[in-house]
Structure to design on (554 residues):
């Protein structure tokens, strides 16, 4: 009555939906708990109805990504009264503070719950470093290096200490080691351990929670700026600014030694700390370093990164602006740690990617490397090429990386995207010659998420086209596993389309694999129950001319 806005704040992750199985399903609880057509219960709908009609809220605020409202059964977009989301929310406006680096799930809230997003910053980040047994292992590796140079007679003793520690801490399982290597190859194993240790301590981890509307400061600001400066910057659409450690001469290709990585990280921290002490003054860069590449990175931090981070303080102002019926400007989404500093400042209604530009050229390079790594690992373990590979593809990761996973599927099949140079969109596919490929074409089965199905229907078609292209090549069974397998299936049942179906997902209008609910319900006995639910939920075929055709057996 007095014009004030009433807000009903709901922590969406804490909404609990309890479904009581109806009579007659006692002997097969799996069937009812995981029916993809199961609507929200009357308790669920009543909560939203009470907030809207009885409490009299003018607007709903969901906090925390993601809730379950936007994943209820119903159409993929353009909700109708028969859809669970519309039945719950109705015409109540929804304002949704959302993590800026999760474009997929945020886009789902926009498509299926008419949400106005106000994006917010990622949590504080820090380098993992080492602790406990891992720190002790690092010390032993350093001792081994010293003993190897100065007192080789003690090598058997230090090697046994290293192996004993690794076994006690189960590190041998992490590294895929079954038995202690012989003395003559022990040092080769240590090179592998050293690289693994470098990866562990160098990984970026969360160091607390982001406080809405609060820009990081002090040590948290220093850590986050350092984390952002690790990656090459795609600012302005070009990779114009190198990563700081790259500018310092570190080649981060997985083969960098632990000491080199630690030294580069220490030097980078010292440089950024000096810039922070200067008040992030760009003019101070020339006093801090005489390396022109390093200076470019530090100026970028002072003029772009830090000012954008400090604008985080507007997040709550933007939320209040939305609650007052104001317009929230659009902005890009993604991880600022992947060279996407343009997603800052936060407080905007983010969009995701151009879906027809997936995979991007950069994602293609990454996908090829991922495919090569997978095949190299398999050949190392089994001594042969894998004939079939199963991959799970999610919409969120496709948006965040511009299609790394999609590119990996294509690379395994031996198919290259063709881009239009002007728009950067994918306009076609071409097979990579066997001579260039240097290996067989790998058969790939893809399990797509429900959101990927909704957001990237043309990519689903493109992947299916790639499979059909490879299956139709006049190549031997030894060079083309897709053709070999499809020909075998055709001989069995005579259906060409069925024999070349490789993309599966949940039933149209549903989401998930059914496993989380099954595990939470504790209504399963063994792996067979899990397999039954997974195949039942994922047993719908997609591709050109296929829109979720039942295909559980396939």
């Amino acid at each position: 009555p007095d014009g004030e806005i009433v807000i009903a704040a709901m922590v969406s992750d804490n909404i609990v939906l309890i479904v009581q199985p109806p009579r007659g399903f006692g002997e097969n609880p799996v069937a009812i708990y995981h029916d993809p057509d199961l609507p929200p219960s009357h308790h669920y709908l009543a909560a939203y109805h009470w907030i809207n009609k009885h409490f009299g809220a003018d607007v709903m605020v969901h906090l925390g990504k993601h809730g379950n409202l936007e994943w209820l059964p119903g159409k993929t977009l353009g909700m109708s009264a028969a859809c669970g989301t519309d039945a719950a929310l109705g015409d109540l406006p929804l304002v949704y503070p959302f993590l800026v680096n999760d474009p997929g799930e945020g886009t789902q809230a926009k498509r299926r719950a008419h949400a106005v997003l106000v994006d917010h910053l990622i949590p504080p980040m820090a380098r993992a470093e080492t602790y406990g047994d891992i720190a002790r292992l690092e010390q032993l590796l350093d001792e081994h290096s010293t003993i190897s140079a100065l007192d080789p007679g003690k090598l058997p003793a230090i090697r046994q200490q290293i192996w004993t520690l690794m076994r006690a801490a189960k590190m041998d399982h992490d590294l895929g080691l079954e038995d202690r290597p012989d003395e003559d190859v022990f040092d080769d194993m240590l090179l592998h351990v050293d690289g693994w240790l470098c990866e562990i301590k160098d990984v970026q981890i969360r160091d607390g929670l982001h406080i809405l509307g609060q820009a990081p400061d002090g040590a948290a600001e220093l850590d986050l700026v350092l984390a952002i400066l690790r990656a090459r910057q795609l600012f302005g659409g070009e990779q114009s600014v190198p990563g700081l450690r790259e500018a310092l001469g570190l080649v981060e290709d997985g083969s960098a030694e632990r000491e080199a990585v630690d030294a580069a990280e220490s030097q980078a921290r010292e440089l950024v700390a000096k810039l922070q002490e200067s008040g992030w003054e760009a003019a101070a860069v020339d006093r801090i370093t005489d390396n022109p590449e390093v200076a470019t990175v530090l100026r970028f931090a002072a003029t772009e990164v830090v000012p954008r981070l400090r604008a985080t303080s507007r997040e709550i102002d933007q939320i209040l602006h939305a609650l007052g019926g104001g317009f929230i400007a659009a902005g890009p989404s993604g991880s600022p740690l992947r060279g996407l500093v343009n997603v800052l400042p936060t407080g905007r209604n983010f969009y995701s990617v151009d879906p027809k530009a997936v995979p991007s050229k950069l994602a293609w390079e990454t996908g090829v490397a991922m495919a090569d790594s997978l095949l190299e690992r398999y050949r190392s373990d089994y001594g042969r090429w894998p004939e079939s590979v199963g991959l799970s593809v999610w919409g969120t990761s496709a948006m965040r990386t511009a299609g790394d996973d999609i590119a990996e599927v294509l690379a395994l099949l031996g198919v290259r995207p063709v881009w239009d140079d002007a728009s950067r969109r994918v306009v076609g596919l071409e097979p990579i010659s066997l001579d260039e490929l240097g290996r067989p074409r790998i058969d790939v089965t893809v399990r797509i998420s429900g959101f990927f199905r909704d957001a990237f229907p043309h990519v689903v078609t493109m992947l299916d086209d790639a499979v059909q292209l490879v299956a139709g090549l006049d190549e031997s069974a030894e060079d083309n596993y897709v053709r070999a397998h499809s020909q075998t299936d055709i001989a069995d049942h005579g259906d060409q389309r069925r024999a070349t179906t490789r993309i599966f997902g949940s039933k149209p209008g549903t989401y998930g694999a059914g496993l989380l609910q099954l595990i939470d319900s504790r209504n399963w006995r063994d792996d067979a129950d899990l397999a039954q639910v997974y195949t039942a939920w994922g047993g719908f075929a997609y591709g050109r001319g296929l829109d979720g055709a039942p295909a559980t057996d396939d």
In short: The chain is about 45% helix and 10% strand. The longest helix spans residues 361-382. The mean pLDDT is 87. The radius of gyration is 27 Å.
